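Lab notebook, design round three. We kept the backbone fixed and only want residue identities now. Task for the bench partner: fill in a sequence for the structure below.
Input structure tokens:
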């Protein structure tokens, strides 16, 4: 309260109302927060009850599906699970009472999904077992009905009865415990294996033997499917128990959530009521205290001040207010006291001020009389100056005028009046229409005046027009400005006659833009029109052609007949060629006998052909000059706009000029079209070649080395030198980025010589370290074909005396070798005398010839990586690879495979008899400094060291295995949506199936590994058929599990193939 007494009146009121408003706002805020809290808790209770209801419906749905196991019940249950999970997600953002319910529900959903999948797998296996059982019984009936030897028939009947007994025994173990059922299945499997052995001894006829093989194979597949179905049945029971346990946990968590929610609501309501009551009591107490204090501090001083003011009003000026407050009331009391003190002083000074004002008024009247006399003298001077100004205006040769807003002249000099055939005095008060009959011209004058008057700004009309009293039209440059006369705006203007200036300017422009001799546009005007034509073509999506013409034979005529005759010939040819063009086209003379035509609005390049033919015909037509019949022709180069690259007018002229020279070289009197793509490629090649030349001079090129090894023994055969460009901006570049630019170019020879010298220096350095690493270097055909190749090679070898025979091998492309077989053979023999070996690179990609292979003394054939890379999945590449290896064996050559990227590539190559290889599976290309460390660490993979070459009779199985991988890739691609139709899924449609039922059955039919391979092949194709059916029926949620099983079975199949192949 002491603080309140020290405040001013306004601050007291503001503070009091502020406190009351804050307390009221606090009450309102507490009420809103309380209401929101209670509402939120009620909503939470409602959502919890709904969640509990959804959990009950979900539990009933799961229980119903476990009883009925209907597909539509499973889908409905998944829908209910998603609804419950969505409801829990919404509650998680609003409460922490859910506890462990979300993870338990997620586990419940995953377990239910697993339960459904296990049911589907069990049903599929039972269906598969049923189909196999029916097939076995049908085959038994068929073999019994077939004709055979009595002894064979008896053995077949006995074996059939035993197989039928095995099938019936499986039905008896369906409901046994899992352990006992598994033991029974194993016993039946052993019994089936015994029957297989007996069938080969008792049955000798090949047809019955194959039938019995199929029966026993299908019976084995039946037992496998039946055993798998029993395993899924056991898993299904365990999963059902897990579901029951999780359901009890979910019900318990839901009941706990409901109880916790109710307790939280009761607690929230109690807190809200206590808070609201406290705020209300606090507001009442504060209002009472503020009202009491304001009454004391305001009303008593106001009553005392009121008595003082009444005394002053009655004339008692010596009365004073005795209020000492520090607020506005105290200030008001002090103001009243000061007012009383001032009243006497003001009355005394009033009479003195009136006397002073009277004296000042007398002095002002005297000064005003003097000012009037001075103004009259100034007006006389102004009149004299106006007369002099008028004389000056009349002497000016330009038009000077002034018009009011009605268009009437208020000022006109002698020059303007003379042009109208009148005097300045007669012109005043008239309009232009009174002297000029050209209504359009008069309207323009009036419009310009109104623009100046309305805008209040000056304007300049550089190309104004005026018609004098003789009817002669003059060109003016007019300037107009607004000026104020009383309350109206007038126009003041000056017009300069520029008629003669324009005539001179026109003559100069003509001389600057047109050729004097032919009256055609010159180079300056051509550039302007070409720029306009290019802009027009871009705006209207049209084309234009630039034609550069040079007259053939003109120089001879000009030298023999004289320049005057030559000039007349040029003038007539120019007129004739111009007539051959269209109106919208432009023909310009650049100088001498060179012309340029710009053909606009072309639909395409072909539409320019008739115009070009007319142009050449006009130039080639004989011309009579000075009694002589003169003959010339024209060579023309043509380029078009727009182009793929951005070009300007100068570039178009250069392109057309280049094309014109090509036309001259082709025989003259013709035209040639500029090839923009070829020009761009040539420029790009030239730039790259120049950059390569700079890089070679700046030591930007480096060699990387890729080792070549014997995959079986691990022996390092050497390394291939591979060129790389350490580009300053682009980083490390492979050869494909720059070598095409120097193909068949002399720069390629320089780079090849650098590679050869650098590789030999590196071999010498390795030898100094005690390392023996032979290096193979690629030789370009142009370098190899040089007459000085052998001499340069001898000199390079002599510069590295540490080299030994066999350290260097040269690789030449097969296609290069076919160009001159005799020369190549001689060079190879000479190189062999120098201790240099040869290899045919990329063998198989060219037009290989057995004659060439026989004649060339190359000891190594390098199989191109394009055949090796896809050999695991492409039977055709595998066939080419097998053919190349056969050629190498037949001609006693060594073969090395490029592009061995995986262990599987190496294993297949070793099985086919190819031991030498290079590729990423061995080592990537590396700097020379990394080779010693790699040599110290290199060990062949164990899979390669123990991989044996397969017998030639087993090669068809290798091909069939690759074909089957290709079938798998097609099936997986169809499942991913990459193809429209699935591959044939029947087991007998693939090459592996043909091999199993044909050559494989004859050669390996009695081997357990063969029976396992046949069984896994059949199961894999049945699973493939099931995958196709799942996708067709839309059961996409089951595809992932089935695809994982498909991959597993494919691996098992490939393992079975390798087991059968290994000796």
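Proposed sequence:
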């Amino acid at each position: 309260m002491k603080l309140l007494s020290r405040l001013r009146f306004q601050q007291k009121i503001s503070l009091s109302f502020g406190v009351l408003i804050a307390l009221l706002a606090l009450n309102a805020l507490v009420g809103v927060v309380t209401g929101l809290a209670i509402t939120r808790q009620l909503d939470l209770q409602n959502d919890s009850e709904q969640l509990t209801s959804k959990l009950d419906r979900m539990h009933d749905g799961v229980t119903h599906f476990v009883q009925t196991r209907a597909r539509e019940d499973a889908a409905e249950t998944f829908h209910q699970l998603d609804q419950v999970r969505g409801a829990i997600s919404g509650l998680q953002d609003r409460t922490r009472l859910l506890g462990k319910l979300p993870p338990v529900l997620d586990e419940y959903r995953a377990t239910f999904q697993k339960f459904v999948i296990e049911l589907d797998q069990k049903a599929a296996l039972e269906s598969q077992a049923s189909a196999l059982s029916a097939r076995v019984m049908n085959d038994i009936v068929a073999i019994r009905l077939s004709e055979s030897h009595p002894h064979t028939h008896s053995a077949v009947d006995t074996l059939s009865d035993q197989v039928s007994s095995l099938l019936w025994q499986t039905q008896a173990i369906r409901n046994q415990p899992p352990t006992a059922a598994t033991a029974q299945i194993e016993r039946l499997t052993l019994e089936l294996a015994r029957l297989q052995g007996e069938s080969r001894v008792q049955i000798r006829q090949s047809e019955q033997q194959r039938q019995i093989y199929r029966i026993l194979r299908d019976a084995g597949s039946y037992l496998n499917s039946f055993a798998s179905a029993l395993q899924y049945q056991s898993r299904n029971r365990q999963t059902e128990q897990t579901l029951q346990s999780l359901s009890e946990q979910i019900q318990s968590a839901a009941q706990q959530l409901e109880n916790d929610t109710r307790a939280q609501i009761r607690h929230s309501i109690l807190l809200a009521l206590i808070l609201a009551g406290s705020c209300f009591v606090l507001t009442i107490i504060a209002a009472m205290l503020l009202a009491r204090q304001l009454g004391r501090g305001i009303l008593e001083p106001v009553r005392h001040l009121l008595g003082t003011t009444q005394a002053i009003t009655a004339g008692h000026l010596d009365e004073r207010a005795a209020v000492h407050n520090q607020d506005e009331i105290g200030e008001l009391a002090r103001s009243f006291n000061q007012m009383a003190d001032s009243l006497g002083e003001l009355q005394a000074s009033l009479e003195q001020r009136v006397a002073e004002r009277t004296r000042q008024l007398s002095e002002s009247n005297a000064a005003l009389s003097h000012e009037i006399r001075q103004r009259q003298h100034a007006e006389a001077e102004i009149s004299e100056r106006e007369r002099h100004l008028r004389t000056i205006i009349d002497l000016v040769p330009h038009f000077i005028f002034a018009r009011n807003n009605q268009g009437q002249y208020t000022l006109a000099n002698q020059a303007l009046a003379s042009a109208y055939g009148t005097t300045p005095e007669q012109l005043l008060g008239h309009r232009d229409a009174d002297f000029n009959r050209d209504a359009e011209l008069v309207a323009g004058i009036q419009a310009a005046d109104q623009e100046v008057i309305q805008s209040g700004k000056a304007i300049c009309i550089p190309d104004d027009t005026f018609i004098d009293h003789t009817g002669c039209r003059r060109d003016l440059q007019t300037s107009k400005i607004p000026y104020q006369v009383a309350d109206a705006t007038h126009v003041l203007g000056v017009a300069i006659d520029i008629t003669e200036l324009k005539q001179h300017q026109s003559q100069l422009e003509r001389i600057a833009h047109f050729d004097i001799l032919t009256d055609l546009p010159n180079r300056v005007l051509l550039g302007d029109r070409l720029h306009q034509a290019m802009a027009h073509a871009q705006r209207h999506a049209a084309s234009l052609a630039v034609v550069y013409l040079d007259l053939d034979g003109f120089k001879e005529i000009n030298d023999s007949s004289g320049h005057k005759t030559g000039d007349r010939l040029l003038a007539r040819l120019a007129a004739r060629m111009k007539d051959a063009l269209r109106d919208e086209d432009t023909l310009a003379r650049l100088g001498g006998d060179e012309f340029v035509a710009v053909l606009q609005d072309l639909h395409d390049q072909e539409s320019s052909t008739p115009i070009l033919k007319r142009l050449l015909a006009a130039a080639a037509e004989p011309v009579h000059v000075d009694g002589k019949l003169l003959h010339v022709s024209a060579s023309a180069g043509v380029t078009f706009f727009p182009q793929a690259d951005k070009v300007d007018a100068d570039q178009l002229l250069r392109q057309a000029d280049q094309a014109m020279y090509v036309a001259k070289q082709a025989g003259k009197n013709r035209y040639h079209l500029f090839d923009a793509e070829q020009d761009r490629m040539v420029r790009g090649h030239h730039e790259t070649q120049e950059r390569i030349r700079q890089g070679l001079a700046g030591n930007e090129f480096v060699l990387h080395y890729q080792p070549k090894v014997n995959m079986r023994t691990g022996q390092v055969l050497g390394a291939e030198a591979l060129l790389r460009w350490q580009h300053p901006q682009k980083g490390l570049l492979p050869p494909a980025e720059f070598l095409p630019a120097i193909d068949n170019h002399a720069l390629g020879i320089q780079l090849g010589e650098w590679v050869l010298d650098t590789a030999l220096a590196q071999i010498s350095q390795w030898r100094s370290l005690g390392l023996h690493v032979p290096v193979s270097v690629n030789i370009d055909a142009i370098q190899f074909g040089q007459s000085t190749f052998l001499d340069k090679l001898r000199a390079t070898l002599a510069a590295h005396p540490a080299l030994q025979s066999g350290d260097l091998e040269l690789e030449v492309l097969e296609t290069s070798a076919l160009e001159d077989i005799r020369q190549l053979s001689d060079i190879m023999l000479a190189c062999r005398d120098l201790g240099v070996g040869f290899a045919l690179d990329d063998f198989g990609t060219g037009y290989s010839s057995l004659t060439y292979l026989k004649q060339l003394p190359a000891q190594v054939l390098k199989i191109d990586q394009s055949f090796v890379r896809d050999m695991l999945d492409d039977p055709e590449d595998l066939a080419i690879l097998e053919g190349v290896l056969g050629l190498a064996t037949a001609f006693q050559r060594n073969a090395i495979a490029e592009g061995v990227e995986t262990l599987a590539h190496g294993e297949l190559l070793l099985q086919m008899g190819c031991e030498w290889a290079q590729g990423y599976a061995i080592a990537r290309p590396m700097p020379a400094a990394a080779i010693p460390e790699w040599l110290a660490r290199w060990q062949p993979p164990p899979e390669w060291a123990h991989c044996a070459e397969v017998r030639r009779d087993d090669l068809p199985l290798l091909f069939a295995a690759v074909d089957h991988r290709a079938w798998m890739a097609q099936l997986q691609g169809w499942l991913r949506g990459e193809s429209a139709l699935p591959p044939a899924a029947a087991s007998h449609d693939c090459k592996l199936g043909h091999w199993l039922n044909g050559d494989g059955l004859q050669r390996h039919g009695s081997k357990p590994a063969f029976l396992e391979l046949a069984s896994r092949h059949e199961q894999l194709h049945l699973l493939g058929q099931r995958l196709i059916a799942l996708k067709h029926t839309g059961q996409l949620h089951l595809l992932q599990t089935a695809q994982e099983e498909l991959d597993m079975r494919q691996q098992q199949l490939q393992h079975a193939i390798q087991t059968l192949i290994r000796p």
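Keep this in mind before ordering anything: The chain is about 65% helix and 15% strand.
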